[in-house]
Amino acid sequence: MNIASSREPAGDPAAPGTITSRPKRAPIRPLHYLYMLPMLLLVGAFLLYPALNTAWLSFTDSNGLNNPNFIGLKNYTNLFTDPAFSTSFTNTLLWVVGVLVLQVTFGLLIALVLSGVRGGNALKILFYLPATISGASVAVVWYFMFDPNQGMINTTLRLLHLGGVAQDWLTNVPTNTWALIVAATWQGLGPNMLLFLVGLQNIPREPLEAGTLDGAGPVRLFWSITLPLLRPMLTIVVGIALINSFKVFDLIWVMTQGGPYRSTETLAVTMYRESFVSFQLGYGAAVAIVLSLIVMVISIPYLRTMFRRDAEVYA
Amino acid sequence: MSAAAPTPAARPNRRRSTRWLIQIAVLALAVIWLAPFWSPLITPMKTTPEYFATSPWALPKNPANFFDNLQTAWQTAGLGSGFLASLSYGVVGAAMAIVFASLGAFAIVRLRVRAPFFWFILVFSGTIVPFQMYLIPLFQTYNKVGLYDTWIGMALFYTAIAIPFCLFVMRGAFSTISREILEAARLDGCRDVDVYWRVCMPLSRGSIAVLFLFQFTWIWNDLIFGLVLSTSDGVRPVMPTLAGMQGLYATQGPPIVLAAALIASLPTIVLFLLLRNYMIRGLTLTAGAE
Fold it and tell me: Residues B100, A38: contact at Cβ < 8 Å?
């Protein structure tokens, strides 16, 4: 048993992915595979097998009681005539827009401001603080904030003589979905802001200084220099925000349980309700598959950026 | 430094007033950002009748109610057992995931296995697939094999779900260790296991600390797997317990529910404030931005 790299300096297995550079005929060493065994067993049994099983279940009428029968694409065709599913799908799109506008754009704005303002470091921690709390806790806090009578929002509005705006935030459609998105922004803005700050720090100063000398104003500097140089980080932040906006569950489930009358459901909530409240497991699995296909497709640009960096670092 | 950077421009007065405006706007936003913390901090100091009779901004009449409400939340409402359960899942799950993932990473980067990139992607795909894909079969299988609503079932699952990201980070950490060090260790007579445990792991301390913190926080904050895979006190993690106290079927008054939210959030807030540089590094690692 030897460390491969010490034997054959030419083929360095330390470079992941560069299979071509590996030695041609290395003897197989069964013991080396043993190191991967616990990891592969756990991931296989608890993640990979369930994922494949969900794919199979989505073609059945499983309800947790009887033996599931294969029913082809029936669950999927039912999705498209189900009004609850179309509400859920529309809400998910609202979440995507809301998250992109509020969490990403404001995250970038705040990062830009904080990078040039006094006390930026302390404020950075403050804006990040809500992100350290769980979705469930954030939901509990905002549930009481949105309370029509005792909530901080309506009380403050009445104090400011804006009582006309005060309302039952979590009941009125479609205000309730936007109310949830606002709560999610409070929690989700911090990480985006931090990643943008990291990105801004890594931008070289020379182009900005050159631009300033040429007489460009701050707005021009931002569009022509900062934003293009920030693009890799922008891809990552937008990617993560998109993926998260499709998967949001905790906040909605704890605040409204998708209600009233399923009006605030998103795909992740619909999946949970169909599977674990109505026990339509086959149907729930079909929702999970639709959700996953969307998430995996939108992950592609993000993953490509991620592994391009990965390849640069470890190649 | 970026767009907001000062410039030797022709209109210094206008520049200066704009900067002041921006400074004030940011401070105002910071105050708004802090406001939601008021209710979980202040409301637990009120009694339930007091909560319904006064403004949410009003200061409590008798702040000592705080301890009563914390105790009711901890004991009567059952948050305490969820708290302790989550503590054990967080510690055990994060530690086991780091050990198993680092062993795998060691094989993938430092030992001779065929198609190392395939094994990496196979495991890493666990973070790309949305959690909704795991729920139904896990629920069914757990019921079938008797893991449903057991401590070991929860701990095993949290370990498994933490592994893909740990593998990603440990693979990165191990591949930066210079080959000279490993060769020197081998010349000194180290076996593979020794190289893993005595050379690679100690050299990756920083990554391990970040991972532990990050995975602990993730497990602590999880809601959905706790909802689906457990039900009884002592097994059910802290977040599903908190979620169960709130909403339409609430039996406890708002001061107690908010006290519970405060207890449930405190560990991760404290960890962040104490170790925020590790947390921020963990965030950039999650994003693959490091």
Answer: yes
> What span, in angstroms and rounded, lies between the C-alpha atoms of B146 and B228?
14
Amino acid type, B274: L
A24 touches chain B (CB under 8 A): no
Contact B56 A136 (CB under 8 A): no
* CATH number of the domain enclosing A249: 1.10.3720.10
List chain B residues with CB under 8 Å of A150: 51-52, 56, 254
For residue B162, which of B109, B108, B107, B92 has the smallest C-alpha distance? B92
What's the pLDDT tens digit per position in A184-208?
999 999 999 999 998 888 888 888 8
* CATH number of the CATH domain containing B132: 1.10.3720.10
Q: What is the pTM of this model?
A: 0.87
Inform me whether the C-beta atom of residue A95 falls under 8 Å from chain B C-beta atoms: no
The ipTM (two decimal places) reads 0.88
> How does pLDDT run across A88-108, given as a tens digit for each residue?
999 999 999 999 889 999 999
- Exposed/middle/buried for residue A255 (C-beta within 10 Å: 0-12, 13-18, 19+): buried
Contact of B115 with A18, CB cutoff 8 Å: no
Q: Note which residues in 183-202 of chain A have CB less than 8 A from chain B.
A: 186, 191, 194-195, 198-200
Residue B241 has a pLDDT of 92
Q: Is residue B175 part of a domain?
A: yes
Q: Give domain status of residue B222, yes or no.
A: yes
Q: Which of A22, A35, A295, A234 is nearest to B171 (CA)?
A: A35
Residue A8 is assigned to a structural domain of this protein: no
Domain count across chain B: 1
Contact status, residue B7 vs residue A211, Cβ threshold 8 Å: no
Q: pLDDT by residue (tens digit) across A137-188?
A: 999 999 999 988 888 888 889 888 887 787 888 888 888 999 999 999 999 9
d(CA A138, CA A159): 24
A71 interface with B at CB cutoff 8 Å = no
